[in-house]
């Protein structure tokens, strides 16, 4: 089927062309009963493969072929009914290792228009039934998608630097003085007259206390978290370093007899350091990362009705996207929380005196500041797969005819090309240039009478012809007979050439010499 052949036919009967091609190359061609007898073809090819030449002839006449063996073809019309009758189908199972089998099923149905596709999610197997050409194309498409996903290792370092400054300096006087009298001995309530009867010695005064505060406190805290997490391409990963705080909620359901039924529920709130990221691996060892960072702390507890409990939570969060090279470190900072609080306790009047007022007052203050610094370093563990050229671009034929190989006429180099010129095969000529159609001398020989059969034209016997050398002629002259009214164009094309002697030369050459 890959033998070189040269054809030269113009508006010739299709059956006659196949007959000449069969006699020349030895290819067996069987025609379906529904192949029309009046089909004609025009083809001029030089040193083309027999398989490609036959495909072109079939394409011209809307025909299809089925290979019986390596040297036999069965030709039938390219109709839906004939294709169902003659076209062989194959069942193929593909074990999918990396890709989503449901996604591949959708690709085969929408892109390649393959109807009979089934998936087994338990074994991750894809089963399809179609022609050999369609399965070959589907195999390349599956190979292009069933590749391992890239993976990265992300090194994260979270540093929270907090600084607290506490001061309490001064003299702290009592805020109040309590005066009281002893209770009457008779146990009766004390009246205003009874109070007047009390002397000064019976008036009670609460003890007075004085405190001198000399306190300054500095606190520095560094909280470091250094997690490492591995993630696949375009899949979210989540890190939580902290606590899950319970939040109790009670609800009362009234009943008919009065009162109510208390129903409690508990929900949990994540408090601490939460980090979510989604990596995407690019070519040239680059990684894009979408980062969501949140740092939360409990500020205070809030007691609700019916025994419910809630919390006031302070949060700091940041969302960003970066693109880094493999092993490159990116530092993100600026999540700062600062607070400054000062208090003063003074004796009225005396505390406002200049200089001396410090002896009658107490001053305190609190200064807090914290900053969160995030350091990210990606490491590519598995780079994106580089698709082979054979699956990066896949030929799939036409909309109605799927084929694995493109229909093309590539010249076949060599001296063994068989030539068919208007029905006459010509064998390889010695001394012919490579890649050119060989030519052989022709010898005039009358045609054998042919018996026409059915709708096909009479096929003459194809013989090798040689020219007749006429004495005294420098070159042999070959002439074909003219057409008569009873000769059909196909018969004239197959008629052997007739040698016509040239005009006699002026003088005879020497005896035994031929020019």
Name the average pLDDT: 75
- Number of beta-strand segments: 23
Counting DSSP H or I runs of 4 or more residues, the number of helices is: 8
As residue ranges, the low-confidence spans are 423-502, 508-515
* Shape, per Cα inertia axes: elongated
Rounded radius of gyration (Å): 52 Å
| Share of residues in strands | 35-45%
| Terminal Cα span | 43 Å
Helix content: 10-25%
Note the topology.
Layout: E1 4-13, H1 14-25, E2 28-31, E3 40-49, H2 50-60, E4 63-69, E5 72-77, H3 80-86, E6 90-95, H4 101-110, E7 117-120, E8 125-130, H5 132-145, E9 151-172, E10 179-180, H6 192-197, E11 204-205, E12 211-225, E13 228-232, E14 237-254, E15 260-282, E16 286-303, E17 309-325, E18 330-346, E19 361-382, H7 389-392, E20 418-421, E21 424-426, E22 478-479, H8 489-494, E23 498-499
Parallel strand pairs: 1-20, 2-5
Antiparallel strand pairs: 1-3, 4-5, 6-8, 7-8, 9-12, 9-13, 9-19, 10-11, 14-15, 15-16, 16-17, 18-19, 20-21, 22-23
Describe this structure in words.
The chain has about 525 residues and is mainly beta. Among the domains are: about 85-150 and about 385-390, Ribosomal Protein S8, Chain: A, domain 1; about 155-175 and about 210-380, no CATH class; about 440-515, no CATH class. Helices cover about 15% and strands about 45% of the residues. It contains eight helices and 23 strands. The longest helix is centred in the N-terminal third of the chain and has 14 residues, at about 130-145. It is elongated.
């Amino acid at each position: 089927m890959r033998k070189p052949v040269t054809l030269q036919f113009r508006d010739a009967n299709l059956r006659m062309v196949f007959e000449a091609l069969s006699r020349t190359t030895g290819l067996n061609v069987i025609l379906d009963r529904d192949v029309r007898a009046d089909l004609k073809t025009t083809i001029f090819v030089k040193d083309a493969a027999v398989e490609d030449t036959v495909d072109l002839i079939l394409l011209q006449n809307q025909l299809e072929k089925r290979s019986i063996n390596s040297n036999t073809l069965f030709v039938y019309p390219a109709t839906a009914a004939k294709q169902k009758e003659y076209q062989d189908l194959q069942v193929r199972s593909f074990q999918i290792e990396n890709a989503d089998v449901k996604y591949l099923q959708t690709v085969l149905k929408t892109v390649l228009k393959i109807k009979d596709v089934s998936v087994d999610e338990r074994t991750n197997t894809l089963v399809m039934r179609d022609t050999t050409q369609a399965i070959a194309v589907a195999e390349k498409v599956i190979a292009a998608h069933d590749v391992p996903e890239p993976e990265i290792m992300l090194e994260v370092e979270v540093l929270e630097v907090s600084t607290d400054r506490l001061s309490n300096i001064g003299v702290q006087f009592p805020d109040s003085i309590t005066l009281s009298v002893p209770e009457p001995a008779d146990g009766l309530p004390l009246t205003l007259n009874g109070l007047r009867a009390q002397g000064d010695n019976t008036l009670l005064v609460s003890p007075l206390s004085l405190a001198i505060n000399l306190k300054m406190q500095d606190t520095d805290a560094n909280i470091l978290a250094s997690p490492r997490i591995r993630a696949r391409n375009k899949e979210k990963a989540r890190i939580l370093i902290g606590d899950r705080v319970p939040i109790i909620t009670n609800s009362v359901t009234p009943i008919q007899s009065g009162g109510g039924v208390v129903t409690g529920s508990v929900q949990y709130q994540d408090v601490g350091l939460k980090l979510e990221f989604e990596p995407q691996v690019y070519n040239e060892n680059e990684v894009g990362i979408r980062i969501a960072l949140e740092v939360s702390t409990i500020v205070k507890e809030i007691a609700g009705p019916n025994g419910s409990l809630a919390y006031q939570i302070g949060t700091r969060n940041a969302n960003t996207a970066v693109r880094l090279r493999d092993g490159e470190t990116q530092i993100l900072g600026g999540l700062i929380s600062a607070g400054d609080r000062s208090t003063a306790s003074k004796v009225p009047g005396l505390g406002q005196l200049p200089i001396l007022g410090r002896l009658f007052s107490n001053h305190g203050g609190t200064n807090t500041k914290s900053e969160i610094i995030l350091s990210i370093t990606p490491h590519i563990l598995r780079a994106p797969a580089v698709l082979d050229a054979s699956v990066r671009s896949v030929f799939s034929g036409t909309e109605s005819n799927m084929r694995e190989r493109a229909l093309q006429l590539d010249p076949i180099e060599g001296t063994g090309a068989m030539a068919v010129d208007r029905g006459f095969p010509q064998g390889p000529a010695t001394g012919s240039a490579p890649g050119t159609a060989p030519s052989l001398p022709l010898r005039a020989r009358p045609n054998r009478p042919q018996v026409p059969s059915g709708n096909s034209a009479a096929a003459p016997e194809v013989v090798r012809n040689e020219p007749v050398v006429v004495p005294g002629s420098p070159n042999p002259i070959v002439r074909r007979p003219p057409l008569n009214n009873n000769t059909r164009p196909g018969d004239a094309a197959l008629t052997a050439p007739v040698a016509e002697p040239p005009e006699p030369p002026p003088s005879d050459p020497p005896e035994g010499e031929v020019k």
